[in-house]
Design brief:
By secondary structure, this protein is α+β, with helices and mostly antiparallel strands. It is about 20% helix and about 25% strand. It has a domain at about 20-160: Rossmann fold. The chain has helices at about 20-25, 70-85, 100-115, 165-170; strands at about 35-40, 45-50, 55-65, 85-95, 115-125, 145-150, 175, 185. The structure holds S-adenosylmethionine (SAM).
């Protein structure tokens, strides 16, 4: 019995490729990946070392670059490869922070297309730092930045909903409708302005 030929862009997901991603990505066919999420070095001007797990294996990586441009020059060819393997319907997340996020955005606009930029997600990691008491001359640096791009055509995106936790309901939905017992909160009535594609509120695929 003859077996159907494997489509050339089907990826064997049982394999973990180890090594520099620039070399490893070259082994993958075009448009074979639904989701790229990278948490690469941030251009933090630090080198990192941790003793990992029970065996205390030392793991390290370097995040010192001559300049921000040198960091971008390191990341750009890797992003070009990632863009190549990403499906048109896929999503690309680049996790970074204030050290280089603005330069990364400009680089990714070139690589993935400015019009494929979907969201800047702010991940607030901490509340205020007490750096000021230690003499800092800046406001708290308390968030990471995730830049989301679509693969460029028929982008798949699904809003996820799950029930609120009981504590959240008690704290934020303090009012109860007498007749029905339904909880509610008071809020303003500002709407996002309709489903205009130009406002990014269109439910149709981008
Ligand atoms: C900010 S850390 C992310 C760690 C990981 N997300 C975690 O939570 O444990 C950056 C990671 O990128 C890896 N890395 C740096 N350069 C790389 C390269 N050229 N190819 C593949 N991985 C690389 C480092 O080894 C390090 O593990």
């Amino acid at each position: 019995m003859s077996r159907a030929a494997k489509p050339s862009n089907l990826l064997d997901t049982r394999v973990i490729y180890c090594g520099d991603n620039l070399d490893q990505l070259k082994k993958l066919p075009d448009a074979c990946v639904d989701l790229v999420y990278i948490d690469p070095p941030f251009n933090s001007n630090r080198n990192y070392e941790v003793f990992w797990g029970e065996t205390k294996e030392m793991r390290s990586f370097e995040d010192r670059h001559e300049s921000t441009q040198a960091y971008i020059d390191f990341m750009q060819p890797r992003c070009v490869e990632l863009a190549r393997v990403l499906k048109k319907t896929g999503s690309f997340y680049y996790h970074c922070d204030w050290h280089a996020s603005h330069y990364v955005k400009v680089m990714l606009d070139r690589v993935l297309g400015e019009s494929n930029f979907v969201n800047e997600v702010i991940w607030k990691r901490q509340s205020a730092h007490s750096d000021a008491k230690q003499g800092s001359k800046h406001l708290g640096r308390v968030h990471d930045t995730l830049l989301l791009y679509s693969g460029g055509g028929g982008f798949y995106f699904k809003h996820l909903y799950r029930p609120y936790e009981e504590d959240y309901l008690k704290n934020f939905y303090k009012h109860v409708e007498a007749k029905t017992g339904r909880r509610y909160r008071l809020g303003d009535l500002t709407a996002p302005g309709g489903a205009s594609p130009s406002k990014g509120n269109c439910s149709a695929p981008l």
